[in-house]
Amino acid sequence: MAKRKSNLAGGSRIVLALSILSLILNKPVVAQNVYTLNYPGSTCYLTYISYARDGDYSVIKKPFIFILGEENQTAQQLFDLDTLKKSTAYINFQFIYVPNMGTSPKDKLNCIETLAGSITNNFLFGHANMFLQINDKRITQSDLSLYGLKNVFGKVRFAYPAQRDLALVDTIGNFKEDDLGYKVDKKQKIDNRKEYEKAKVDFFENKTYEKPKKTYMGKPDALNFTLTGIIRDKSTSEALPSASIYVKGTTIGTSTNTDGYFTFLKVPSDTSTLIVQYIGYEKREVFLTPKSDKKNLLIEMIPQSQALQNVTVTAYRDDIVFSRKAEVSTIKLTPKKLETLPSLGEKDIMRSFQLMPGISASNESSSGLYVRGGTPDQNLVLYDGFTVYHVDHLYGFYSAFNSNAIKDVQLYKGGFESKFGGRLSSVTEITSKEGNRNNFNVGGDLSLLSMNLYTEVPIGKKFSSFIAFRRSYKGPLYNKIFDKFNTKPETSTSTPVRQGPGGMFSQNTKVTSYFYDLNGKFTYRPGDKDIVSLSIFNGTDKLDNSVSSEIPSFGQSGSNLNMSSTDLTRYGNIGSSLKWSRKWNSKLYGNTFLSYSNYYSHRDRTQNGTIFNSNNESRTSRNGILENNDLKDYSLKSDYQWDITDFNQIQFGGFATHYDIKYNYAQSDTTTILNRSGQALLGGFYIQSKMKFFNNKLQVLPGIRSSYFETANKMYFEPRASVSYNLTDNLTLKAAYGKYYQFANRVTREDILSGSKDFWILSDGKSVPISSSVHYVAGISYESKNYIFSAEAYYKKIHNLTEYSLRINASPMGINYDENFFNGYGFSKGIEFLVQKNSGNFNGWISYTLGEAKNHFDVYSDTYFPANQDVTHEFKIVGLYNYRRWDFSANWIFATGRPYTAPSGAYSITLLDGSAQDYFTVTSKNSLRLPDYHRLDVSVNYKLYLGSYNDKDRQELGYIGFSLFNVYNRKNIWYKQYAIESGKVIETNVTYLGITPNITISLKFR
Amino acid sequence: MKFRILIQILMIFGAITACTKSDNSEFTDSPIVESYLKPGDHPLIKITRQTPFSSNINYSSDDINSLSIKITDNNISNILTPIGEGQYIDSAITIAEGERYDISFLFNSKSVTAYTEVPNKPRQVTQSVTSITIAQMDFSSGMPTSMPENPDPVSLTWNNPDASYYIVVIENMEKTLTAIRDFGNNTRPGNMFRKAPTTSSGIEIQSMEFQYYGRHRLILYHVLPDYASLYSDKQSSSQNLTNPSTSIMNGYGIFTALNSDTLYLTVKK
Question: Which pLDDT band holds residue B114 (cuts at 50, 70, 90)?
Fold first, then answer.
């Protein structure tokens, strides 16, 4: 008997051991996951535990059991004590352990719905398989009804019978998975957590783009709060200026400043949705959650892969209700999209602006803009804050702006705000690229005209740089344009070059002509609040039509003769600005610029003779014309924007510029005909207030700018105001008024035989007075889902215009050159229409402008005469079509002819040396019109990718473009030339460029 | 819908541009005066009409050969005698240095007037050399064995205290012209050439500027500003045509006096 007992005892010990072992083994080997919902400070900030028995956390199409712990129990404690999770019935269930915090049932139950929604992607698969177990003794069924949890969960049970409603009696077995209970919401078609995660990864690596989804479905935490942030390019981190951002479903909207920062003073709730738009990038929605960073919200935009979809004319247009950006007469262009427009050798921002209403397109020989009947010198061109005085390359065919270096351009056609001053007609504001902040990049273009190379080098997280260089080469396109402007045939007189003792006998050398640009920008961000950047700009032209002969001598004499006929023009603009931006707080943002801009133009049309004698001494004599213009501009300015309230933003600033302008015109190296030099200080300040009323329907922007000009020793006040009113969500009325002064003037002398002889001089208040203008603008725009219609009318009155003429005042007593500045006044008025389609694969716009520009100069006539730039009708149609990798575009421009002056008679005078010279008399200035101008340009671009078509990971390498300028080779007349032959006055037409093809290859590393 | 708008727009401006009007520049029949008053000569004035640009204009009724041109010198006025082809002369007056001369006549119902003063003869004129030797460059038989020496430029200087205008005209006096170098297929240059007007007190003529051998007259003219301005950039393009510079009221052309000194230079082989 004792033996059997001991046998049993031994057996039970084994059983005990085995059962302990099994207990151990039965313990789940998979660890639980600990998560946090929301963040400290919000109501539903809690730490919960998620546990899947089978270890599969990737799927949300499964049953969920939420367990609310006992009073004051943490999730961990709850988890440790829970036995449900061990049940084999729940092997494929997901357990969520919710801590019990708070004192009232409300507090405890409040967050469960939020939590459940966030976990299950807003109940993507319905509520039938959502289960809740409440361990808290004090919660009753009526509490459940009160807090709506009955609708959230398919079944709820109480762990402790005391709370159980008899109707709700169930056993553990009632938490049963209902296979048919999974409903899928068709709109949100992510049925697999794995795919969603992959989409998220792809999005952040910029390969495929799936729209971000709203994931937070809970209640908002904050209402009517201030939100500030920055909008950037996803891959390069380049800040996007003037991007539109607004709150979906409201009229609250704003735009980013030049550094990409935006501020909303009153966002309705922190679960609102923001909509962001920037041309060239995919429009995106930003779903705010209580967790979003309210002080520095980062929004990243993905570039569009399609062709130019819109050139924003005014506000945002979209398919849902939103607010309008109420700006008058503003055009925005992003160089990114210029590739698809037809180009003449180079994609060019200024030429692209010519396709817009209100800007003259029939002037091939000037890349400066003629905006609403104004001349290019009345257009203020700002490049990163400093003024560019000369925007032409190669006789005006190209602008001095390398598109690869430019991020954003805004053109204000009229009625522009107090922030800008010093010009009468318009403002072009150019912002250059800062460079990729994340990766090194290099790229380049090669066309029939020039080559273009750029590089982006970031160093660390705080420093980024961008450098671009462009240079023309003397290829067929350059020569074609160059020859058009030099009527003297380029005489390489066929002098045979013979070999002889001592080398070549005689050479006629021709020096090359070219233009180049160098742009650089270096940006340093020491912290979150400051940005320091240095921008450098250098655009130079050397146009040489000279002939030189060198006759070496050999033998005993040893003296050389050098004779050359020079026709050299060298001009350019060098500029640089140092900018410091600071975000003082969420309401105040400021920029300060210190800049230098130098425009120089040197023109030499002389005959030189240099003789070197045997002692190597040289004697030079020079006959001809020498012209020199040098303008130096040193500026310091500061601009601030202060969001005082959510409906009022005040912008103010100060500026000071020191001008140093010299102009010298001499003949024969000794006779100075005109010598003007001026130095003056121009300083002042401005203040304007952007106000919104009636739920942002009415926006008013009054302001005043005041300047002190040293030469005149006077203050000048320029009041300005603009108003826009949204009659309906689609229809907006706009109006603007402004007074403008100009202190530095560019005098135009378009004598084509010698090239352009424009020069800058300072007003002196006497022979060159300070010019002024007044603008009145009114417009209406209607935007539907796919179209924009807009009409805008303008009237500008201009006083104290100055024209210059060199020869008009000779008498036996002398030639008085200083009296050759003539003063007058003028006006320009017109109406512009635009119809734009901006969605779909085929889009474009049609624009028509009816305008008139007239001047009145007493010296010419006592009535108004048409200004040189007056064009009555101008009609433009631009179409763009995108098909897969191909982009097709075409534009047709029609403009009625410009005025010109024809001679009324001609005569000949025989001079003392026996030669006869022709002279022409004129009765009325600009009384005739050249024939109509029209031309068609087309272009085709093919995008180059690395990888196959179906490969979504493929990278864009660049494109190859072919474009044809003036397809049907119309001989548009540029000007007429007169001569006397056989007793008759002969008129010859000189035409613009005929059909000109161009091929461009553009490649980039990233 | 958009096509309808497009067609409507096209029709509208088609209608507007259909009515173009051609404008004729008005033509004012102003006389052209050409006259150079040289000391020792009788005044000779040539009047012509402008050549009109458009074909259907009407000239005034004045006859170019029977105008009544009055010349005034020291308050003594004479009427010039027409000698045909628009030329008028006054044999009673001899142009003298320092004198002021005024002319006036009626043309196309307007009073055409001009005046001028005879500048002084160039003073203290010096000439660096009276002859230069330029070797003939002939390459028809290949390279020459020795290269010629290039002579120094001919330098003229004069006294110019008030920075007035001077022009040098170089004229070859030979009856037959012997070229210094082969012109090839280019047109043969004339026997005269000039230097640009200058307000300095000297000028240099490079040996390369001579085209022919032989005796040359170097005429140094002392001219007035209105003559010098005739050499300025000529405008013949429709972009900026303006009336020519002239000192004649209600007329065009040149009525000016000048004075000169002649020097001689021989260019030898």
Answer: very high
Residues of B in contact with A497 (CB under 8 A): none
- Measured between beta carbons, which residues in chain B are less than 8 angstroms from residue A561? 150, 208
- Provide, as residue numbers in chain B, all residues whose Cβ is less than 8 Å from the Cβ of A979: 236
Output the average pLDDT for chain A: 79
Q: How many CB atoms are closer than 10 A to CB A344?
A: 24
pLDDT digit string (tens) for A907-955?
Answer: 888 888 888 888 888 877 888 899 999 999 999 989 888 776 555 556 7
Distances (CA, A) of A448 to A27, A68, A346, A479, A940: 76, 74, 9, 11, 15
What contacts A126, CB < 8 A, 6 or more positions away?
Answer: A181, A182, A183, A184
Question: Scanning every residue of chain B, which has its alpha carbon at the shortest distance from the alpha carbon of A813?
Answer: B225
Strands (E), A91-192: 94-98, 130-134, 155-158
Contacts of B236 in chain A (CB under 8 A): 753, 918, 920, 977-979
Identify the DSSP state of B86. T
Whether B266 and B130 have beta carbons less than 8 Å apart is answered as yes
Q: Are B220 and B158 in contact (CB under 8 A)?
A: yes
Ramachandran category for residue A121: left, alpha or beta (phi over 0 → left; psi -120 to 50 → alpha)? left
Q: What is the DSSP string of A243-298?
A: -EEEETTSS-EEE--TTSEEEEEEEEETT-EEEEE-TTB--EEEE--TTS-SSSEE
**Interchain CB distance below 8 Å, B51 and A907:** yes
The three-point CA angle A711-A715-A721 to 5° equals 130
Side chain identity at residue B224, one-letter code: L
Residue B163 distance to chain A (closest CA, Å): 9
Interchain CB contact of B2 with A (< 8 Å)? yes
Residue entry with tokens 């009160």: A146
C-alpha radius of gyration, chain B, whole number: 26
Residue of A912, A929, A991 to mutate, testing the B interface (most B Cβ within 10 Å of its Cβ): A912
A134 strand-pairing partners: A68, A158
Count CB-CB contacts under 10 A for residue A922. Answer: 21
| Ranges of residues in chain A whose predicted pLDDT is under 50 | 1-8, 26-30, 166-173, 186-209, 306-325, 488-509, 551-561, 750-755, 808
**CB proximity under 8 Å: B 123-182 to A:** 139, 143, 146-150, 152-153, 167, 169
CA distance A341 to chain B (A): 21
pLDDT tens for each residue of B146-203: 555 667 788 899 998 888 889 899 999 988 888 887 777 777 888 888 887 888 888 8
Distance from CA of A787 to the nearest CA of B (A): 10
* From A810, A905, A927, residue closest to B229, measured CB to CB: A810
CB-based contact B117 A912, cutoff 8 Å: no
pTM above 0.90, yes or no: no
Q: Distance from A723 to chain B by nearest Cα, in Å? A: 29
Closest CA to A765 of A800, A731, A793: A800
pLDDT digits (tens, 9 = 90+) for B86-101: 999 999 889 999 899 9
Write out chain B residues lying below 8 Å of A821, CB-based. Answer: none
Q: Is A142 exposed, middle or buried (0-12, 13-18, 19+ CB in 10 A)?
A: exposed
Residue B187 to residue B178: CA distance in whole angstroms: 15
Q: How far apart are CA B75 and CA A390, in angstroms?
A: 57
| Residue B171, min C-alpha distance to chain A (Å) | 8
Contact state of A751 with B236 under an 8 Å Cβ cutoff: no
A983 to B1, B51, B52, B53, B55: CA distances (angstroms): 59, 7, 10, 11, 12
Residues of B in contact with A980 (CB under 8 A): 51
Non-local CB neighbours of B194 within 8 Å, separated by 6+ positions = A911, A912, A913, A915, B167, B168, B169, B170
The H-or-E segment that residue A455 falls in is strand A450-456
